[in-house]
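User: Okay, second chain of the day. Same drill as before: sequence in, structure tokens out.
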Amino acid sequence: MNIQNIAALGEQLQSLGFENAGYSLLKRICFKPVSFFLSHKVEKGKDQLSFNLFFEKESKQNVYVLMHYDAILQKEMPMPDATINGINTATLEKRMAEIDWKNAFDFDTTKQWSLDDKESWNNEQKIESVIEDLCELEKAEEGRAIAVSLKLKYWAGTPYQELFGNISPLKNKLEVSQHFYFSDRQAGISADEAYRFLQNRWLEKQMQAKRKKQSPITGRKYLKKNILHLEVDYYTRNV
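Assistant: Same drill. Structure tokens below.
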């Protein structure tokens, strides 16, 4: 195992804003894959920022190289305090926040439970209650988007698709993403720089939606012109 290569990659990630990644690199590289992804998530206020970093092995030098990463900014949908079909959305969100959803969607871990000991299955009863309320919300047109938004917020990074399928239509409305490449001649775009770039992309996306309502043709021309200007200016300053 090329420990020096792992240490160098860890330092590179540290300089880009991805902290404490050395052990994650070690765990993946010990299996000697041809390539692999490393995931990293951070919270920016109420925003969720996810990174999928792609590494590839250079066989001749027996080293792994960071080739690129995808940065995904997920904006939080404003959650109204409303009662729909008898379900109060603020109360439901509070209950969802109290559940460890990563553990809830882990169907492989086993534990002892007893019918007579309610505490041993109390968490599952809470989950069932939440699912029932989400289903009630989805029966109403005004509650459907709220239910999906709550799933996106609390189920991100879990294998929820196994039970609930794809919820990407709303997800696409709440996300912006960008592909960033690396080369030997560039220091690379840091996590903070990627966040600022995606924030600008998000603002452009909102402007696009607003201008489409006013004038579809004018809106497309304005968006194309300003996105081009934004991206050229950004890369001129940072590359």
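The CA atoms of residues 116 and 122 lie 11 Å apart.

User: Thanks, on to the next one.
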